[in-house]
Amino acid sequence: MVGLNSDKSVKRLKGNDRPYFNEKDRKFMLESIKYVDKVYIFDEDTPLKLIEFIRPDIIVKGGDYKPLEIIGNELCEVRIFDYINGYSTTKILENIK
Questions:
Q1: pLDDT of 89
Q2: Which of 48, 63, 73, 75 has its Cα between 20 and 30 A from that of 55?
Q3: Residue in 97, 96, 64, 56 with CA at minimum distance from that of residue 80
Q4: Cα 19–57–12 angle (5° rounding)?
Q5: H helices, E strands: number in the chain
Q6: Ramachandran assignment for 54, one of left (phi > 0), alpha (psi -120 to 50 degrees), beta (any other)
Q7: Domains in the chain: how many in total?
């Protein structure tokens, strides 16, 4: 299961020029991954309510975070996946500019 920030949430967190892809398209892309069973879109700035609802065994977050920095870390195990060079919307948009 994947929690996906709504367009409103992304705008609040990243600015008016984001998201680059709308939530419908981002949801479709995620649902196209064979390992994704369900995508939940949330409007809040953090997915805490969604995490409390789903009660996952593991939260997976991409980036350079530490597990204790992740929302919901007190509810379950947290695993951090490193960024893959060149696969960041922010970097792609910087290169386009």
A1: 76
A2: 63
A3: 64
A4: 20
A5: 4, 4
A6: alpha
A7: 1
- Boundaries of domain holding 43: 2-96
- Structural contact between residues 4 and 30, judged by C-beta atoms closer than 8 angstroms: yes
Q: How far apart are CA 22 and CA 35, in angstroms?
A: 22
Tell me the two tokens of residue 61. 């977050």
Summarize pLDDT for 24-77 with one digit per residue, the tens: 999 999 999 999 999 999 999 999 999 999 999 999 998 889 999 999 999 999
Cα 28 → chain centroid:
14
CATH number of the domain within which 39 lies: 3.40.50.620
In angstroms, the CA 88 to CA 18 distance is 13
